[in-house]
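Hello,

Our lab assistant flagged a job as stuck in the queue for most of the afternoon. It eventually completed. Since we weren't sure the result was trustworthy after the delay, we are filing this so someone can double-check. Below is the sequence as submitted and the structure that was eventually returned. Let us know if re-running is recommended.
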Amino acid sequence: MKNKYIRLKALLLAGALTLTGSTLTGCSEQLDADENPTNVVQETTTHFNPGEHIISVPIKKDIRYSNFQFDYYLGYEPIGISLTAFGKLSNGYGGGAIIYSNVDEVECSSLIKDKEGNPIYLDFGTPMCEGKDNSNSEDKIKLFGIGEHIISVPIKIDNRANNQQYEYHEGYEVVGIATTAFGHLSNGFGGGVLLYKNITPVECTSGDDGYTTFGVPVEPEKLLQLN
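-- returned structure --
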């Protein structure tokens, strides 16, 4: 009976110590939290001179078989494109990216930092000059200012072994090329694209997929009338 009483007393004492320890730990954590509040992430803003802010945007749609229109960002221009393919036997689309560089002074803001604490600017910045999107719409016809109409055109012939000539389009220039391959044992041609941007104002007609055809250069006299 005495041994039973001693064991019961020991159990009660252990329970009391456990409860006390938990209570003290809770108080300690609360004090630490009060003394060291969570750090507030501060926004960082940086000024970039032309050519200093370079970012890529993923290409999620398979653009190897039809023309595709890319977004234009004020103060930036496309400078390249990449595509990938995969598959032992089939020609699967592996994704890609279009890369832009700022042509105007821009100001960028970010809440993200890398492992070393340096800010990362993944969004397009705001031009420091008072630029504006010069494009306007009238029914299905749209006027694109210089650099605003960016489209890719499929490459259907394997260009990896021999020289190839590509089509010239008035009012545009080529700013990138991408070619893909697939196959486990063979080096199959997976298709590719040429990337164009307009170097003069152009008028484009929209289709089912947007403004995916080359526009017609606008004469200076007509441009003055439109503005």
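-- support follow-up --
The delay was a queue issue, not a problem with the job. The result is valid. The CA atoms of residues 94 and 138 lie 37 Å apart. The radius of gyration is 30 Å.
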